């Protein structure tokens, strides 16, 4: 599943279509594609894992789910979910969910929860965490109402960076660890962004999909944890369990 930084990269790459008018819309989506033809791209935005195209009369939300992808001025062998044509090129979206949003985006999205937004509010994230003391750390980082854009890679890497066991409860975390959890969720997202643009992201993984802890030189534990049952990779020696 693409994480927030990947969507910001898409937004940057698609910026070439800003101000352009959609002249063609096709694909196997069931939405009313004809509505898109003639619409001008007024803005390109992202919120967490959502790619948002603001148009003249409404907006288009794209969610890439587990296996979604995109191509700009290229096509895959598979049919696109939605292909948008412009006089200057095309944007092709695959294996994703596309929906119209009729309301202004500022009424729909809480930009303060997006870890990569200029409006990100760490104090708000800490308040929301403290309001859910029984939540597991592995679930907290994947909660899009608190950390919009954080996915499983960032979750595993952040918990390893701050030496917190994924089954720690939020309410048991000492105040410095809670602050570190929030700070590193944003910091690692921007590190992810820079590494992915440079095509070196996987080279920087210390925990995600790894077999051995680079600090302790002992095997990592791999388990599907929390309400989300997403894969966790962690060290039982250097990542302390707070409960």
From TrEMBL:
Residues 2-101 form the Formamidopyrimidine-DNA glycosylase catalytic domain. The keyword Plastid does not apply. InterPro entries: FPG_cat, FPG_N, H2TH_FPG, Ribosomal_uS13-like_H2TH. SMART domains: Fapy_DNA_glyco, H2TH. It catalyses: Hydrolysis of DNA containing ring-opened 7-methylguanine residues, releasing 2,6-diamino-4-hydroxy-5-(N-methyl)formamidopyrimidine. It comes from the Bacteria. Keywords: DNA damage, DNA repair, DNA-binding, Glycosidase, Hydrolase, Lyase, Multifunctional enzyme. Belongs to the FPG family. This is DNA-formamidopyrimidine glycosylase family protein. It comes from Caenimonas terrae.
């Amino acid at each position: 599943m693409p994480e927030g930084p990947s969507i910001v990269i898409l937004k940057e790459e698609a910026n070439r279509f800003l101000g352009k008018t959609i002249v063609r819309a096709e694909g196997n989506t069931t939405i009313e594609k004809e509505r898109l033809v003639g619409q001008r791209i007024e803005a390109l935005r992202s919120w967490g894992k959502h790619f948002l195209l603001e148009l003249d009369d409404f907006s288009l939300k794209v969610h890439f789910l587990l296996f979604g992808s995109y191509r700009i001025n290229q096509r895959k062998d598979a049919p696109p979910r939605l292909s948008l044509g412009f006089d200057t090129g095309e944007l092709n979206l695959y294996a994703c969910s596309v929906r119209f949003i009729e309301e202004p985006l500022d009424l729909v999205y809480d930009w303060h929860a997006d870890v990569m937004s200029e409006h990100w509010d760490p104090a708000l994230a800490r308040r929301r965490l403290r309001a859910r003391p029984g939540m597991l750390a592995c679930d907290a980082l994947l909660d899009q109402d608190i950390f919009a854009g954080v996915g499983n890679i960032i979750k595993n890497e952040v918990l390893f960076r701050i030496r917190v066991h994924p089954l720690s409860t939020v309410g048991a975390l000492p105040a410095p660890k809670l602050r570190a959890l929030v700070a590193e969720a944003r910091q690692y997202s921007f590190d992810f962004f820079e590494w992915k643009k440079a095509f070196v992201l996987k080279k920087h993984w210390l925990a995600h999909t790894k077999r051995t802890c680079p600090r302790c030189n002992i095997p990592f534990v791999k388990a599907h944890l929390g309400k989300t049952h997403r894969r966790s990779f962690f060290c039982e020696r250097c990542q302390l369990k707070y409960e």
